[in-house]
Specification:
The protein is mainly beta. The protein contains no helices and 2 strands.
Length: 31
């Protein structure tokens, strides 16, 4: 179970980067 997470640039605010998180190994919320 992997969730795709969008990371936005702090300078321009665009969602330039994506990463994924495995819910089974990292159940806490991603900031």
């Amino acid at each position: 179970m992997r969730d795709l997470i969008k990371l936005s640039c702090e300078e321009c605010g665009r969602d330039n980067y994506t990463t994924d998180k495995n819910k089974r190994t990292m159940p806490e919320k991603f900031k």
